[in-house]
Amino acid sequence: MDPAGNINVAVIGLGYWGPNLVRNFAAVAGTTVSRVCDLDQERLKKAKRLFPFVSTTTNLEDVLSDSNVDLIAVATPVSTHYELGMRALRAGKHVFIEKPLAGSSKLAGELVDFAKSKNLHLFVDHTFVFTPAVRKMRDIYARGDLGRLLYYDSVRINLGIFQHDVNVVWDLVTHDLAILDHILAGRLPQSVACTGAAHFGNHLADLAYVTLKYDDDFIAHIHVNWLAPVKVRQVLLCGDKSMLIYDDNSAAEKIKVYDSGVQVARAEDVYRLLVQYRAGDMYSPRLDNSEALELEAENVVETIRGKTKPICSGDVGLRVVRILEAADESLRLGGQPVRLDISAPPKSVLAGA
Fold it and tell me: Which of the residues 214, 228, 245, 265 could staple to 157 if both were Cys, CB 3.0 to 4.6 A apart?
């Protein structure tokens, strides 16, 4: 960062997501995307046409050795996140890594610890957290409108896109885990259960059902699927005061809040319950039109400048990876719940682990 507070960014990986990172970081005031790196010459040529202000290279060392680069954004397959992230940190750069942070909690923990030891910022790209809809969900819950949370129910299905290095849990459930982490201020579930199937012999599940149980009877259920004929992105968040539906496919009313619920009282006979149903008004709050990735890029840049705190830090990414790992273990065990030690750091970041 120069004396004027300008930030130079380099983007590694120009596949599906990398060009979006270039465009949005370039849109942040006082930020320049100075370099892009990819092994594919055709991608580099396309990037040069779209973003003539960037310098292109196939050599990672050109980026790492550039003393003007302050932040390196990594948009490559998950299997490369640890190596590229660690090399960037060792080169003294702040690092922004596409979700999930790494392929295991051990590797994610090492990235988090090393970044802290060097006073460098490590960020994970949990874009959904910055969407106007998810920010509104968090605000509605934080001000008490939902009351005590009872459950979170998500359906995230579509036809493809099949990933080659991670299963559908690591690809799609990551979004819901980031949303839950944001709403619940980092609270981890007590246990994780996952069932699913890999239909095409590659051992990577293409359909899964994940259930998270928390210490206050809050439960989250997440259904993900690469084999659905339609695209559905819907979340139901229910509290004992009101209920909320988030439909990401809706153009006009992504959030709907329902003054609906139940009230339970005991009759004189202690074995009987009197259940009353409440069906009140529905309203759809106004959302701004901000682009989530641009808001995320602004948070990253302002954090590096020391003007704000990170919303999706490496610690957030590590918590999400811990849950993904537990889901994978449960999947291997045929759906048996796997407990998380919510009072201790992951074993991977303990000395000698």
Answer: 228
Any residues with CB less than 8 A from the CB of 141 and at least 6 apart, and which? 149, 183, 237, 239
- Domain ranges within the chain, ordered by starting residue: 7-128+292-312
Name residue 257's beta-bridge partners.
244, 283
List residues bridging with 233 in a β-sheet: 156
What CA–CA distance (Å, rounded) separates 189 from 220? 9
Q: Quote the DSSP letter at residue 245.
A: E
Contacts of 171 (CB under 8 A, 6+ apart): 163, 224, 226
Parallel, antiparallel, or unpaired for β 207-213 and 338-339? unpaired
Kindly indicate the confidence band of residue 351, based on its pLDDT and cuts at 50, 70 and 90.
very low
Residues 7-128+292-312: name the CATH superfamily: NAD(P)-binding Rossmann-like Domain (3.40.50.720)
281-322: per-residue pLDDT in tens?
789 999 998 999 999 999 999 999 999 999 999 999 999 999
Question: Strand, helix or coil at 177?
Answer: helix
Nearest to 317 by CA among 93, 73, 117, 123: 123
Between the alpha carbon of residue 350 and those of residues 344, 345, 347, the distances in Å are 10, 7, 5
Given this model, what pLDDT does residue 162 score? 85
Q: What is the pLDDT of residue 256?
A: 96
- What is each CA distance from 183 to 46, 94, 209, 317, in whole angstroms? 38, 26, 21, 15
The Cα 2–Cα 209 span in angstroms is 48
Whether the Cβ atoms of residue 219 and residue 209 lie closer than 8 Å to each other = no
Rounded Cα distance between 82 and 29, Å, is 29
Query: Does residue 77 have a cis peptide bond before it, meaning omega lies within 30 degrees of 0?
Result: no
Copy the structure tokens of residue 163.
Answer: 């990933």
